[in-house]
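# step 3/5: fold
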Amino acid sequence: MSLSASVIIPAYNAEKTLGACLAALQNQTVKAEIIVVDDGSADNTPALAHSYGVNVIALSQNQGRSIARNIGAEAADGEILLFTDADCEPTPNWVAEMLKPFKRDPAVVGVKGAYYCKQREPIARFTQIELEDKYAKMAQQETISFIDTYSAAYRRDVFLANQGFDPRLIYSLEDQDFSFRLAARGYKMVFAPNARVYHQHITQPFKYYQRKWTVGKWKTVILRRHPERRDNDSRTPLTLKLQFGLAGLLTVLLPIALFVPLFRKLVQLTLGAFAVTTLPFHWRTARRDPLLLPLILPLLLLRAFGLAHGYFDGQLRLRNWE
């Protein structure tokens, strides 16, 4: 069964990374139309994209990733829409692996691939193990409810019929919202672990914390729209949900414990419970990257606090956002 495919890359001031992305896409074992949507860049992004001979759609001003991707989808010729980011480098068989589930099963409308990295910085290595922890959960499921746009594929007719990405979600989690919408409507989506793209993960602790804060903040909007995903999505391990809750509890207890000695014992018990929830992640790290073990507990605390604090922020600032 032959399927035509179009790869859509939103690009905003991406001249440092876009060349490697396009070179990787032009080196695929299965060829696909390549569309770069220049999202109002002020650097050399559009000229660089043109130099690779790909289709370039130039927007006059920055409108956000959701709108850029939707415009690319409207212009695409392929039956299958493939999405990746300008800072990703797909492996040579990425397109082929993303198309396989569609060819095997006509009921499949969405496919999720995987992130990998070659970096050696501790936080980048931690992020990779964090992702693989989620991939392990997804690999056990026949269908999934969550597709990230760094390595995503949809049937074009289904994507357009379901209005694509919400253009109001320009900051974060537009991919969660769209895939949750499809799952709620009964569409079948699957995980393709061999469809890999390499990515430059965040390497600085504060930026990592900021990223998790943003995810936590906008998660409040996603969960109001999709309350059925509060306790049931295809990629979030139970341990992460427990750590999120314990971090929220610690946020409340720690200021009180400074003045009330009794609460110091509660802080210790909560920290102990948090440490217990990290044992599966420590085990995965011991097999994958043992030199990282001393950093796992503080990094998991950083992740949990970032998500929890962002969630509190979202509950305050986005409670009326629709």
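# step 4/5: annotate
The radius of gyration is 20 Å.
# step 5/5: archive (pending)
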